[in-house]
Each structure stands twice: as structure tokens, then as C-alpha cells.
Amino acid sequence: MRRSRTGLAAVVPLLWLAVFFAFPFMLVAKLSLSDTALAIPPYAPRIDWSRGLEGVRTFLQGLDLETYARLGRDRLYLDAYLSSLRLAGVATGLLLLIGYPIAYGISRCPPKARQALVMAVILPFWTSFLIRIYAWIAILKPAGVLNAALGALGLPAVDILNTETAVLLGLVYAYLPFMVLPLYAVLDRQDESLIEAAQDLGATPLSAFWRVTFPLSLSGAAAGALLCFIPMAGEFVIPDLLGGSETLMLGRVIWTEFFANRDWPAASAVAIVLLATLVIPILLFERQQRKVLA
Amino acid sequence: MSGRPQLGAVREAFAPWEDPAVRPLVRFEGVGKSFGDTAAVRGVDLSIYEGEFFALLGPSGCGKTTLMRLLAGFETPDAGRVLLGDRDIGADPPHRRPVHMMFQAYALFPHLTVAQNIAFGLKRQGVPRAEIGPRVEEMLSLVKLEGLGRRRPDQLSGGQRQRVALARALAPRPRILLLDEPMAALDRKLREETQFELMAIQQRLNLTFMIVTHDQDEAMVVADRIAVMRAGEIVQVGRPTEVYEAPADRYVAGFIGDVNLFEGRVTAAGGGRVRLASDDGAFDAEGEAAVGDKAWLAVRPEKIAVHTEPPVGGDGNVIAGRIVDYGYLGDWTTYVVEASPGRTLRAARANATRLVDRPLGVGDPVWLTFAPSSAVVLTT
Hints:
The structure holds 2 protein chains of 2 kinds.
Chain A: H1 2-32, E1 35-36, E2 43-44, H2 53-62, H3 66-73, H4 75-107, H5 111-122, H6 129-140, H7 145-152, H8 164-189, H9 192-200, H10 205-233, H11 237-242, H12 250-260, H13 264-293
Antiparallel strand pairs in A: 1-2
Chain B: H1 9-12, E1 26-35, E2 38-48, E3 53-57, H2 64-72, E4 79-84, E5 87-88, E6 99-102, H3 114-125, H4 129-142, H5 158-170, E7 176-180, H6 188-205, E8 208-213, H7 216-222, E9 225-230, E10 233-238, H8 240-245, H9 250-255, E11 260-270, E12 273-278, E13 281-286, E14 294-299, E15 305-307, E16 317-328, E17 332-340, E18 343-350, E19 365-370, E20 376-378
Parallel strand pairs in B: 3-8, 3-9, 6-7, 7-8
Antiparallel strand pairs in B: 1-2, 1-4, 4-5, 9-10, 11-12, 11-14, 12-13, 14-20, 15-19, 16-17, 16-19, 17-18
């Protein structure tokens, strides 16, 4: 009885992964090994099922790494790749700097206030993500809210829409909850008596923070950093709406290849490379999670 | 000196609280502390002496933990003063007090090794790096954890963690060590061993310990003096024998050990003797009370003798009854005796000989006797 139920419980997530991850991933991997073609859909080779096993063999012979070689030759892809990682990295750093004090502050509040503040962190999710990013356009555009405010204060106007600065702003804004929540979870769970023990043994409140609270919250910081870095590296909407033409990010490259250039193999190859790069932080994240849950 | 602590004559002579020339190490003077509308501690006056093993005993919520936290510096008093030596430390933050605490759940730093945990206080004190290693080793051997310095707390058993907590609190050589329910998480056998080890360590280092506990047996075993607390106030302070044999009131009598209480009116008094008329009969006891007063006699179960025949002669107090239950504890048997419908008394008997054929069982008629000197007269 018990055995079959555990078996079933394991089947559900495996089935989910197979249908929604493994299968699409294989499709994309196959696409990345194909060549562009003037056809619908726009790639070749395709499996000719009418010829049976022979058709599959011909298809497999038609696959090659040509698209990947193309990615290596074109500076554009490498630049987009590096700038994606750089922007995601900088944004993660900013998120840590901003998110940590917020999470720490919330965890020091009385329980009632804590609930309200956590609610406030999650609240933006109740509005559409797209609308919130569009709102940043209204704020950052040359005749927007920001410049109106600066003007009213007698300060010079800034033109940051369609720049990397705007993209960073958008990233930090959109991903802040994903940084604050895991940090808050570890900080909130931290045993108050550890701080008391540190102070009892002669540590000043500041020293108790650096020697006890901070090192014990690193697991939350790592979780938050990976939770933000991974999707930010492949982010499309924010660089597309807030970034200029010079802001190269892989999410946009994939979109352009797929929809504008109708180069499905190139788009797939870029996606695979991005995934391969992110597997390392994803594995790190998994390990961290196991430690946090243990 | 052997591993066992000296429990006999040597320790008996230790009584600095009886010597007016000795200045106490810690003094609470009229200390009060409230949380919101609740007074956790009220008007506490207490002196603790150098080298003493002092116990704060009481049920949960009686204020004993608050009193300890006032000394550690985690709470500041609303009223009164807390003095260490001659210095009022009431306003000092915890990290400036030479008072260290062993926390109830140990509060070991999970990200540090055992050795780093023990070194934590030494580093904060600015002990030179070269001295820290040997001091940590010394502490590890004191608590018999040699060779475990590189382990993390989660790689230790409950008993080992408790020792690390003790070593960590002792390492910076506190003027007084506070122990907050230190044995609560240990099983019974380990607890008994630990109690004796704590006493041995306390005497070897000649330190002052203050333990907070709700376990009266624990307090009786380890402490030189016990302060019994109730609802934020100290009811009685004394040696274990004093609080057990001469409890100040019914609360202390009932909290420390088992007790039979006889409620009644004093019908005769004089010459250090009192006669009390109660529902269970008229009894004589040694003590002081005024004729006509309401009073209670407190008699410990082990001071009541159980007879299978009506006793003849003697000046003892006698109660006839019937055994309704008994609990065999190996060394002792506790008999529950019904003296009159609904009124039961407890009598304990040491099983000095092997009870292969149990002479007493449920339903047997028995006669209970106790000497006047075995009863304590209480007026509150």
C-alpha cells in the first residue's frame, strides 16, 4: 500500500519534468543541430516518417554542429553572452546590497509588523509584470516623472531610458522580492539565543551581527542570488522595453533570431548555450537548497 | 582529589552567608521587572557568595529565568539594583559583564567548530592568539571532550553539546556562571552524572555558579543554597536540608518533595510543642503557634511509619487506614493509605530487606505513626 503510494508520488514530478522539460529540451537541442531552410517550419532536415527507420537515419545524418560554429565566429553572440552575464551579475550584487538590509529590517520587527511588511514585498506581484515595466518607461522617459521631479528640485534632467542603467534599474526592481524572501526566511528563522550567546561572551551588537547573524544568513543570500541571477541572465522583457539598441542580452538575441530573422537553429543554439552556462549556478542552487532544507 | 565531588564534611563547613564579614559577590536589592502589565519579578533581595553553587527553583513562569537574565544583562531592572561586587551593573550591556551563561538549548554557533565555539569568548576578550589554543584544549579536557575540537555542533550528541556549551561559557573565566535549565534536554541517567560533574567542576575551579531549574531533585543535589520562587517573589532561601526539613510555608513544603498536610486549629501550645485538632485526629508536633490559630502540619511520607498492628504506647501520632494503592520503586515503596473516605495519605517505606513475599497489599488495614519532631508546624 505504502510502497505503491510513494511510487506514485515520485511518478508525478517525473512525468511533469518529462513532459514540460525533457521533451521540449530535446526539441530545442534537435533544432540547434539543424540548418535554416526556406520552408515552413524554417529548418531542415526533418524526419520522413513514411520511409521508416531509413528516414530517421537520413535525418540523423543531416544534423551537425554548424550553427554552434556560426555562433563562435560572430562577435555579436559572444558580446551578448558576456553582457548578459555581466548585467545579471551587477544586478545580483545590487539586489544583495538592497535586499539584505530590507530582509534584516523585517526580521527584527515585531511579528505583526513582519507579516505586513512581507505582504508589502509580495504586493507588486498582484499587478501585471508588463504593466510595472511599462510604468518604468513613463518614469524614465525624457519628459517623464523622474525628470519632472528633478526639474522641480532644480536639478539637471537625466536621459537614462534605453540605456543599461535603465535595464539595471528594471532588473533590480523586478527581482527584489526574489532576493528579499529567501533572505528573510533564513534571518527570521535564526535562533535569537545565538545572538544573546554571542553578546554574553563579550561580542558587541555589531560584532555579534558580523560573526553570527551574517555567516548564518549566507545560505539565504546564495539562494536569493541564484534565484535572481538565473532568470535575469535570460531576461527578455526588461532589456527589450527599457534597454536601447546597444543593450545586448541573450533573451533579446533569441527573440530576434527566432521572430525577426526566422533563424530557428541559431535561436535554439543560443538557448542551449545559455542553459549550459546556467546549469552550473542551478546545480549550486540545488546544493544550497539541500543544505538549507537539511 | 578523586573524580567525585566532596559532598561531606568539607562542604558542610562552607557557609559564607552566615559570616557577616564576607561581602556577597552578587546582590539583588529590591529588584523588580515587569513585562507589560505582568510583574515577572517583584522586590527581590538576594545575595550570592563567592564560590557558591546557588539554585533558583520554581515552577515555569515564577520569574526565575527573568532574574537570571537580569544578572546576565538581557533585561534591565525597573526597580532596585543589581550589584556585582560593589558595582551596580544594572545598566551594563551583556557584553560588558564578566557574567557568562550556559543557555538552555545550548545556543552553540552552528557554523563554528567546537574549538571555535569555545574560543569565541576568549577572542572577544582579546586574549592573545598564542594563548587561545592551549586555553581551548584545557577547556576540552575539563569537560572530557579531548579530540573533538574540529567537530561541528551538529556532529555531536546531546550530552556532548551540553559540555561544549559549558566549556564555552567557562573559557573566559566568568565571575559567575549562569546555568539556565542546563540538564533539561538530557535523559535521566546522563542528568545524574552531569549533576555530579558540574559540582566537581565548580569546586575544582572554585567558581560561583547560579543554576535555574524547575527540578527540585536537581536543585537539592547540586546547590549549596536554594531560593524557592513563586509568582516573581522569593519565598525561602536556605540549604537544601533547610528548605526540605523546615519549609517556610505550605507552598515550599509542597513544591519540594512529597508532603502530607493536616489542616486544623491549635488547641494547645507551649514548651515548643503544639497540639492540633484536624479532621484526621488530634496530633502533637514540635513548633510554635498560638492557641486558636489555624495551622497546618506538614509530614513527609518517609517520616511516616507503616504498621500492620495497632501500635502500643509511645507518644506518636496514630492514624488508622487501609492501603488503596502502592508504588514500588525498588529502593522505596510508597503506600497510599485511605484514612477516611476520600482522604488519602502517603507513607514511604525503605525496602531494607528483600520483599519476596510482599507483606502489604491493597486492602490491608494499616496504622500510620509519626513522631512530633517529624512534623513541621506551618501557619501560612
